[in-house]
Amino acid sequence: MRLSRYFLPLLKENPKEAEIVSHRLMLRAGMIRQQAAGIYSMLPLGKKVLDKVCNIIREEQNRAGAIEILMPTVQPADLWIESGRYNDYGQEMLRIRDRHDRAMLFGPTNEEMVTDIFRSYVRSYKDLPLNLYHIQWKFRDEVRPRFGVMRGREFLMKDAYSFDLDFEGARAAYNRMFVAYLRTFDRCGLKSIPMRADTGPIGGDLSHEFIVLAETGESEVFCHRDYLELDVPGANVDFNDDAQMASIVEKWTTPYAATDEMHDEAEWAKTPEAERLSARGIEVGHIFHFGTKYSEPMGAAVTGPDGKQHNVSMGSYGIGPTRLIGAIIEASHDDNGIIWPESVAPFGAAIVNMKPGDAGCDGVSDQVYAALTKAGVDPLLDDTDDRAGAKFAAMDLIGLPWQVVVGPRGVGNGVVEVKNRKTGERQEVTPEAAVNMLTGRG
Predict the structure, then answer these.
(1) Where are the alpha helices (DSSP H) in 42-166?
(2) Measuring CA to CA, how many Å separate 11 from each of 5, 26, 146, 200, 394?
(3) What is the largest distance, in Å, between two alpha-carbon atoms of the chain?
(4) In terms of pTM, does the model score above 0.85?
(5) Staple 345 to which of 61, 82, 318, 340, CB 3.0 to 4.6 Å?
């Protein structure tokens, strides 16, 4: 993409309404536009990042055996009345009526609807286990939306829902999602720590929030330093091996880890003082087993091997892709702007033509642009006539992993400058060597 043809509305000044780093940088980098309190349009740069995040989420859900569907944003209130949640949910639910005066709602979550889908088609334990997921927009009328995409009213969510014959099967499904979440956040360039979360009246220990450490985190967290060194399962992990899944979960839940809401001073005291880590954290995902909370009142039962009807045991697994973008920025930025992990960067590299109109600079810029495009790097070519300082500031702000600077002096010497956005390291190499570096061949 050539910047002269792209829609990238950058802001020079910090917006007054932005309270945290991610909100400020997303507005300044032209990623989002606020349309109302807690409601944002995703502009081209933001949409590219969102698509990359969703693709990683989708790949790991599919790898773990979940099956993608797409449920509507507007739901009939009848399903929520049936489950008993319609009157209990509170003012966060946007209740509406259609032209026939039927009660409807803009879905804040999808337990009822997915349970209705399940009960309409699945009758036998032979069709289990089953995990259905979708990536869809949600609306919760927060009393005080703030922090940009971190706490908006409308937001994108990946919701997965597992259905199993019994608790043993549900635990295996939970473990698969646990491992899938570790891989998802790792691929997004984040170190996530699973922390035990409140299970409410369901009880048990199958509820975890996945927390990313960040100085601007919304809550205080406590964990063992071992978490900083634990290896995330690789792409060859076998999601069909229940024993392997259980072993990974055990390794990742044995050291102490808790948010301030679940913090236990007595247990914390058992951790050697030198190994304690107290920090701020951002929740990026939540997995939760809720048993028959919805299957029982809504009649989602299957015939078991004993010939009897069994209400299926369910779990839910959520990741907010829009929120995840904010968390990535909170965890990876500097005073100049965003520092994108390569896996989710909107463009793989920036090519900065320092003198558009100069035959030499244009020729080398186009050469590098064509080579990177052919290699699938998806570069952004700054071919505008802005001043050098403005060009560099813009590229640092939007945070692409690499910058290839093409200037008259360098072209005369047969070199370009390659800058690593994360480390700040710069080196002069030939255009061919620059392409090899950025495509992993050099």
Answers:
(1) 44-63, 77-83, 111-121
(2) 18, 10, 20, 44, 10
(3) 82
(4) yes
(5) 340
